Amino acid sequence: MKKREIFLDFTSLLDVTLIVIFFFVIFSHLENVENTQRTDAKVEEMNEAILAAEASEENAEALAAQLQEEIALVQESNERQASNVSEIIAYARSGNVKLVLVSEGDSWLLRVNCQDETIREIVQGDDIATALMGALEEVGYETEDTIFCDFVFDGTAPGTAAAYRKITGAIEEVQEEYSFLYFSETDLSVGGE
After folding, report:
1. What is the 3-state secondary structure (H, E, C) of 117-134?
2. pLDDT tens-place string over residues 96-153
3. In whole angstroms, what is the distance from residue 157 CA to residue 111 CA?
4. pLDDT value at position 130?
5. 3-state secondary structure at position 152
């Protein structure tokens, strides 16, 4: 059997990734614009109510409190957009979190890397979800931050299927706490001979 060289062209994969990132940024921006418009309308409504009301001091305080809540919503929306943009930049520079599964016969090891540095190594018997949350805290992420995470594994390695199920289950647990955690999977065995 004659061996051939295989050339892999990741141009289309890069295009798809950039399109996904583009739509992520657009939808984040649209959400922010919508929240700002809603808040502006509410502020205008409350200003009219304050001017028109010949109400007691309690009503004025209630309206002021409601206005403060709306202002807090706009600030939260702006913080969300800033978190999204900073994580997109980190992803573009390979500064995001990477989970690398290393199968070693009957056992496996999960390395949590960030910027080519191993943050934590999780072994088969560990509580994976708790260890992952600890690693995210070590990197500096908070529960409301946007996080892009790559899960890299070799699907042909022995024991990978069982490890994969446990790890993806743990990632789903982590997503309950970190609601803006998004992860992609890369199977290194796909496309090889």
Report:
1. EEEEEEECCCCHHHHHHH
2. 788 889 887 778 888 888 887 888 998 888 899 999 999 889 988 888 887 888 888 8
3. 16
4. 92
5. strand
- Per DSSP, what are the bridge partners of residue 124? none
3-state SS assignment for residue 151:
strand
CB-based contacts of 63, cutoff 8 Å, min separation 6: 46, 49, 50, 53
Nearest 5°: phi and psi at 143?
-60, -25
Neighbour-count burial of 126, counting CB atoms closer than 10 A to its CB (0-12 exposed, 13-18 middle, 19+ buried): middle
Give the 3-state secondary structure of residue 143.
Answer: coil
Task: Give me the amino acid identity at 147.
Answer: I
For residue 3, what is the enclosing H or E element? none
Give the angle 185-188-189 at the CA atoms, nearest 5°. Answer: 120
SS3 content of the chain, % helix, strand, coil (to 5): 55, 20, 25
Q: How far apart are CA 25 and CA 40, in angstroms?
A: 23
**DSSP string across 64-126:** HHHHHHHHHHHHHHHHHHHHHHHHHHHHHTT-SEEEEEEEETTEEEEEEEETTEEEEEEETTS
| CA–CA distance, 144 with 79 (Å, rounded to integer) | 10
- Nearest to 90, CA basis, from 60, 115, 110: 115
Helix (H, G, I), strand (E, B) or coil at 173: helix
